[in-house]
Amino acid sequence: MNIQKKILALISVTAILGISSNTIAGESKTDSHTHTHSTLNKGKAIEQYGLPITLMNTIYEGNITAKEMKTLGDIGVGVSNHLNGELTAIDGVVYSIAADGTSTVAPDNLQAPYMSMVKFEPTHSITVKGITSFKALSDVISAEIESVNSFYVFKAKGTFELARLASAHGVEDEDVDFFKYLGGRQMYNLEQTKGTLVGIYTPDYLGTISIPGLHFHFQNGDNTVGGHLEDIRFDEMEFEVQEFDRINLALPNVEEFRTKKMKMIKPPSGSGSGGTKDSK
């Protein structure tokens, strides 16, 4: 069944941005105030199913399938139903990552409560050097992007001195608090390994729509190990970049989402279990 028939609603969030068109690796930025691009990535959007706030309200089930994900883009990040494994899409293949980091091709019928997909067509790249932590990477990327109020998608391949990863181990109790769940995830380190990073930057003010900050997933060179990126070290790497001014959001058409009254909760950052459980 086509996903368009499954969704409860399709929402397009659009922001018109002023950007510079001349930023490439190794060059300085021009004055972004002198350029106005009202047709930025015209007709292109991040395709997202579900919301981070649904997970924080212990709604861990959705009905988008891995087969449907592949029709929406070629790279992406998410998590499978009942938090039974992280999901990473690279080059049109969706991978499911077990709790121990083992990565396998997801079956077409695998379902998810949350997934972001993009048809990746990078417009430029940035050279990133001397990264000693996830925070350092976040600081560099925040300084390089044209607007901290826009969406960005990234892809990078290279050799990593360290990739500290986490995966989703599944929930037996569907009412388990999401923040307690995050605190109990298994972490594992890959050292001196070749691999690929893919991920999305979401500005903080849209943190209830998509995970705020940098949300990166990692796959090793032969796609046998992967996970949600928690920490990182590398000497130098090229990051391919694509900016987006819109996101298409499909709401889960499952009974629990349709009937549960959700609370507003501050979401965790993309770099793991950060954030606080502030309700109102």
What does this structure look like?
With 280 residues, this protein is mainly beta. It has 5 helices and 15 strands. The strands form 3 sheets. The protein has an 8-stranded mixed sheet with strand order 1-15-2-9-4-5-6-7, covered by helices on one side. It is globular and about 50 Å long. The protein starts with 9 loop residues before the first strand and ends in a 21-residue tail after the last helix.
Search tags:
disordered N terminus, disordered C terminus, eight-stranded mixed β-sheet, 5 helices, single chain, 280 residues, mainly beta, five-stranded antiparallel β-sheet
Helices and strands, with pairings:
Blueprint: E1 10-14, E2 46-49, H1 52-56, E3 64-65, H2 66-72, E4 75-79, E5 86-90, E6 93-97, E7 103-105, E8 111-112, E9 114-118, E10 124-131, H3 134-144, E11 151-166, H4 178-183, E12 187-202, E13 213-220, E14 226-244, E15 246-250, H5 255-259
Parallel strand pairs: 2-15
Antiparallel strand pairs: 1-15, 2-9, 3-8, 4-5, 4-9, 5-6, 6-7, 10-14, 11-12, 11-14, 12-13, 13-14
Radius of gyration: 18 Å
Span between termini: 38 Å
Q: Class by helix and strand content?
A: mainly beta
Topology pattern, helix = H, strand = E: EEHEHEEEEEEEHEHEEEEH
Mean pLDDT: 84
As a percent range, the share of strand residues is 35-45%
Largest sheet, in brief, is: 8 strands, mixed
Task: List how many beta strands DSSP finds.
Answer: 15
Helical content band: 10-25%
Parts with pLDDT < 50 across at least 5 consecutive residues = 1-39, 272-280
Shape: globular
Strand order of the largest sheet: 1-15-2-9-4-5-6-7
**How many helical stretches?**
5
